[in-house]
Amino acid sequence: MEKRTITSEKLFGDLQEIIIQHAGESYHLRITSNNKLILTK
Questions:
Q1: What pLDDT is attached to residue 30?
Q2: Which domains does the chain have, with CATH numbers?
Q3: Residues 25 and 41: beta-carbon distance below 8 Å
């Protein structure tokens, strides 16, 4: 399986949260105040 690496800086830019569309569902990926990543549906 091929893998791709994308830095969080490139993925988020100047945002704290992005929405990922997958199989008709929306997932929220956000950077916390402790600089961790959290993915929620």
A1: 98
A2: 8-40 (2.10.70.10)
A3: yes
